[in-house]
Amino acid sequence: MLMSNKPAYIVSALVVAIFSWYYFISRAFPVNVQYLNAVVAFSAVVIIGISFLLGPLAKFVKFTAKYEGQRKAFGIIGYALACAHVLLIVPLLLQSSPQLTLGDAASLAVAAVAFMIFTLMALTSTQKWAQSLGYDNWKSLQRTGYIAIVLVMVHVLLLQKGVFLTRITGQVAIGIVLLVLLLRGLCLVTGKPSTKITL
Ligand code: HEM
User: Nearest 10 degrees: CA dihedral of 55, 135, 199, 119?
Assistant: First the structure.
């Protein structure tokens, strides 16, 4: 029986609530575009991260296997938040006239590539695309997501001379990407077969 997407909605709402609590209540920052953008962007990283974690996690922690089917829902919610982030960046960049360092420019370039990959993944995340590309090609395309999530980590690391390395939000975002890579690496090393995805 197919599970509804309720767990993905609940967990995603929780992630957004926790980042909102952190910025607007714990740190008492003003509710403006800059901090709304931060909530949206960090939530996107964590929710996309959860989407990537569910597959490998199911191989090692048995009870999580029943949530493997939530990968797509988490992925689409995370992608929607990433789109909101890209839209919110426009007024932010227009408002300020920042001195773009080389690091900032590189950060934006890798972010743009990551965003293009996520867009392709989201657009092709249907049964129809899986059939027309052939399952193996389609799976390889979905796997480019690992490159995208690493690029997101580089995007965050390069921003403002690495300031997010010293902030809890940045550490959480980087931590989740490293966890995704660790579990994926463990799957490869231990030769765990990948599960056939049904959309
Ligand atoms: C074309 C694509 C993208 C562009 C142009 C872009 C641009 C930016 C810019 C300019 C900032 C700095 C904002 C500030 O200083 O207030 C930023 C921050 C950030 N971006 Fe992106 N980004 C893109 C894609 C992504 C994607 C796909 C993700 C994650 C899924 C992401 C996650 C983040 C995070 C977590 C931050 C730090 C939030 C903060 O500034 O407090 N970005 N991005």
Answer: 80
